Each structure stands twice: as C-alpha cells, then as structure tokens.
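Hi U.,

Before I forget, here's the chain from the pilot set. I'm dumping it here mostly so it's searchable later in email.
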Amino acid sequence: MHNTNRRARFLKYEWIEFSAYKDRKGLLAYVKKVLDNFGGEYVINFA
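Structure:
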C-alpha cells in the first residue's frame, strides 16, 4: 500500500473525530487541522 493511501486511511478512520462530519465546513476545517499538524500531533507509526 502506498504511503498516500495509508495517510488517507488514518485521516478517515483514526484522526477525524465523528463530530467533524456534522457539516462540510467543519469537516474541511478538521481536515486542514490534521494536514497542518501531520508529522507532529498526527503521526503514523509503521512499527
């Protein structure tokens, strides 16, 4: 699996809280937050 696919799965299933799906604006804001903090607050551990 490519790293892009792994990031997408983590984004969808691990990092985005259920409440973010309430509306489009909230979801986009949450996705931006995750992408801005990827590698810091949001990390994929391949171990």
